[in-house]
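Box 3.1 A note on notation
Throughout this textbook, protein chains are presented in two layers. The first layer is the amino acid sequence; the second is a token string describing backbone geometry. Keep the layers aligned when reading.
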Amino acid sequence: MRKSVENLKTSKITGGIRHPLKSRRKFQMDRYPNEALMGEQLTVTRKTRGNNRKTAIKTANVVNVILADGKIKSSKIVRVLENQTNNDYQRRGVITKGAIVETEDGKCKILSRPGQDGTLNGTLLK
């Protein structure tokens, strides 16, 4: 049974099988992307390399908005207006960095990375 093939040609010129020099390491493993959606606040903590932790938001309904006078206010999200990261994200209402959401205080642009930071911060647009 061969492990990870790693883009090797199917066989050698002589007809033998090419074997990878090493198999995948745990730190090279890939994960499904964590896409923050609207809903009751739910976070997930996962272990990362170096015994560190990443806190990711699965669902969120509140964003910390920086107002024009510099004060920070927690505001409820009404809906996701646009997301330039991906057209599919815009249709599904996924919240990522750079997404524009409608809050109770007005339009807000997301500044944090909810899939990595575990917080949802934004600034009020004019």
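The longest strand covers residues 72-82. The beta strands are 37-38, 42-48, 52-60, 62-66, 72-82, 100-103, 106-110, 121-124.
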